[in-house]
Please model this.
Amino acid sequence: MSIKIGKKTYAERIQAGIDNAFMRQAVSSAQGRFRSGRLKAAEDLGDWEEWRTRGEEIRSHTMENLDYYLHQLSEQVEKRGGTVYFAKTAEEANQYVQKIAREKEAKKVVKSKSMVTEEIGLNEALEESGCEVVESDLGEWILQLDEDPPSHIVTPALHKNKEQIRETFAEKKGYTGSDQPEALAAFAREQLRQDFLSADIGVTGCNFAVAESGAVTLVTNEGNARMVTSLPDTHISVMGMERIVPTWEELEVVVSLLTRAAVGQKLTSYITALTGTRLESEVDGPEDFHLVIVDNGRSKILGTEFQSALHCIRCAACINACPVYRHVGGHSYGSIYPGPIGAVLTPLLDGYEDHKDLPYASTLCAACTEACPVKIPLHEHLIRHREIIVERENMGSKAEGVMMKGYAKWASTSAAYKLSTKMAHTALKPWTEDDYISNGPGPLKGWTDSRDFPAPARQSFRSWYKQREKRRNDG
Amino acid sequence: MTIHHRESFLNNIADQLGRPRRTEVEPPEYSVQPQDRVLAGATADELVDVLDKQCEVIHTNLEKATVETLPEVLRTVLEGYDVRSIAAAAGPRNEVSGLDEFYNRLTGEGYEVHVWDEHEGRHNVEFAERAGAGIVFSDLTLAESGTVTLFNDRFNGRSISLLPETFIAIVPKRTIVPRMTQAGRLIHAEESKGNPVSSCVSFVTGPSNSADIEMNLIVGVHGPVKATYIVVEDM
Model:
């Protein structure tokens, strides 16, 4: 896999998403639960806005000094017996991991969930060099057996129901049990335990590296990442170069933000910080550790107006808040990074050419920006993307051109943006009915074919959402 | 060579940021400190209460004991889980808590008890893989999240808290702190003094779980399925 998934056009993907009734219901219910989990966790914690400010300050300080912290990290990893490989491209990263696999004569590689390895297509590269690659996260394992891409960055198999999963297990692994989630998980536990014990290499991503000590931190619930890093003799961690914090004091803040924003947990079951190789007196853990630090287009974002997109901590809160994702699902984005952050990041990493529709997969309602635990101005980035697509690349339609020119001008300051959404409300008034646009003009037309479209908010998204929930409940 | 392609990679980052490479950075001054206010000023007993309540959320059973009653409480817990084989962490705390004697007694009664022994190498892992329960000591306990912090080392192998179906943590009351903030601060302070952090720090919060199938919470996936913390008042 690479960052781009599938060959279907944007319109075809959207239609497939809309036609998939189970997926739409599953996404919608998941969003509701993720969202209430996040809000409850934020409320329990208290001072959520201050936490977000702290998170933003940490991320922006780190990005401004990224060369310094990556240097410090590599020194520390080396001190603790590890090897560090800086990979400019996906190919370089894959070739390095292939080289390690060859040196180790590895037959089996067991992996814990990692977005960056999906992004660079590491599994295919390892398979090409003759390794069996086993994904061990329950959701990822299901997708791997079914050769299906992920549709959500936290729960990748969200689009599948338990009957489909039972069928996959039966067909691919000879499973004979029921479709009860507990039974399915117990089967996965039993099957994968053998893989953990027999694998030659464990591959993980990295949620956050800690520059001061050289630790690689993994945030998980299932325990598979601990297996992957405790049992095989070699551990390879692949990290996006921006996934780093200066010290353990910053680590705990971003971890607290991540677990709350992602799943509403105070902490996940396992936060595991691994530093270098096991010590001489230790029995489990790797005797050989490699950290692969991947650029793959990230450095092009540094120093630009999109720099804060690199602040992302991959919590998916924006995805869970997005009304467009709710209706079209993750695969519609045609990228392993779906939702608002995917629509911002994918064109930056992979170019506008293949992803010029993504910045339009948004209502600009700003729910994403409001949900982001490190305050990335996602909807402003989307507006800026649209402006670039329309004006510089001339890839947009004429109607979009006219509309976006105005939007970009209005949206350039936050006060002006507020004014613009107010004006949009007035401008759209003739088509709204109980504040829902049933048949919008111009570019909205495509969307309103398939759904009620929320009118740009007069109030905050939160009060809009409350009304919407009420409307739904009232039938 | 153990660091590859670093200079060109980092030079490019500095170029993109439009400045020369930075070789020194002042620690940032942050404008807000919300983490310091969480459970600030809570007494040790109040922290136990917070931990107790959080354990309900994380599907973890919490027991209370003193050094004197610990063997008896632990026995009840093991019997409750119907466990007859135990992988246990080694180290001086077994003596302090009286667990070493207790383990001897259990062995006499036909239990299989393996106390981690670095000299036995891979056998430790193999035993843990078939053990019914793993018993470890918490190094630092985070009340807010119900988290046991393990600085894995030669006494406390990673497998003990990972492979057996049941996870039992002995939590000395004085290890309980408000939240992860205190753990981060402690490790940062030690690193700054030149005491390198353990090769594996495991923050363990209850049993393993997943919501990957239709968003249903499944307790017990790859790691332990059941968990008990035993808070020891006077240890």
User: Anything to note?
Assistant: Chain A is about 50% helix and 10% strand. Chain A touches chain B through 109 residues (CB under 8 Å). The first strand of chain A starts at residue 83 and ends at 87.
